[in-house]
Amino acid sequence: MAAAVGECSSFTSEVTERRGIPAASFVQDVQSYLNQSGLDVNSALAFLQERLQQYRVVEMKLLAQQRDLQAKIPDIEKCLDIVSTLQAKKESGEALVADFELSEGIYSRARIEDSESVCLWLGANVMLQYSCEEATALLQTNLENAKASLEVLVADLQFLRDQVTITQVTTARVYNWDVHQRRLRQATTPKES
C-alpha cells in the first residue's frame, strides 16, 4: 500500500509540468481549495481565467509551430525525391529535364547531366553545395527531426487541451460552489417584511 501511495505521489509530481506548460489541478473540494490557496472566490475565479488565457496563448504558439512543421515535412520529402531522382538518372546515364521556377509565374527548362552535387537552400539566404549522398543524409536527418518534433508538439497540444478542460471545469465548480453558498446564506438570513 505504501508503494502505491509513493507511486501515486511521484506520478502527480511528474505531471505538474510538460515542457514549461504548468499542469492544472482538478478541484474536488472547493472550500479546501480556497482555504489552501488563501483566495476568495472572486480572486480564485480571476486566477483561473488568467491561467486559461495563458493556456490559450501557448496553444496559439503551438498551433503555429505545428502548421510550420506540417508545411516543412512535405518540402523535405520533395527534396529527398528530387535528390534520389538525380542519383537514379546519374546512374542510368541519362539526363534529367526539369522545369524550375525563376520567379513567381516564370519557369525555365533545364537539362541536368551527370551532377555530382546539389545545392540545398538552408534558409536565411544561405545555400550550400553538398554531394548527393551528403544531401540525402542531411535531408533524411531533417525529415526524422521534423517528424519527431511534430509528434512531441501533438503530445504537447493534447496535454494543453487537457489542462484547458480541467481549468474550465474547475472554474465552473468554483462558480457553482459560490452560487450555492450565496443561496444557503439567503435561506438562513431572516427575511424582512
Number of β-strand runs: 6
Largest sheet: 2 strands, antiparallel
* Subunit organisation of the chains: single chain
Radius of gyration using CA atoms only: 29 Å
The residue ranges in which pLDDT falls below 50 over 5 or more consecutive positions are 1-14
Average pLDDT, all residues: 87
Distance between the termini: 59 Å
Strand order of the largest sheet: 1-2
- The helical percent reads 55-70%
Task: State the helix count.
Answer: 4
Strand content: 15-25%
Helix/strand class: alpha+beta
C-alpha geometry = rod-shaped
Question: What string, H for helix and E for strand, traces the elements in order?
Answer: HEEHHEEEEH
Which properties best describe this structure?
single chain, 193 residues, alpha+beta, two-stranded antiparallel sheet, 4 helices, 6 strands, 67% helix, rod-shaped
Short account of what is shown:
With 193 residues, the chain is of the alpha+beta class.
Molecular structure report:
- The chain has 193 residues and is of the alpha+beta class.
- The protein contains 4 helices and 6 strands; from the N terminus they run H-E-E-H-H-E-E-E-E-H.
- The strands form 3 sheets. A two-stranded antiparallel ribbon has the order 1-2. Strands 3-4 form a two-stranded antiparallel ribbon.
- Helix 3 runs antiparallel to helix 4.
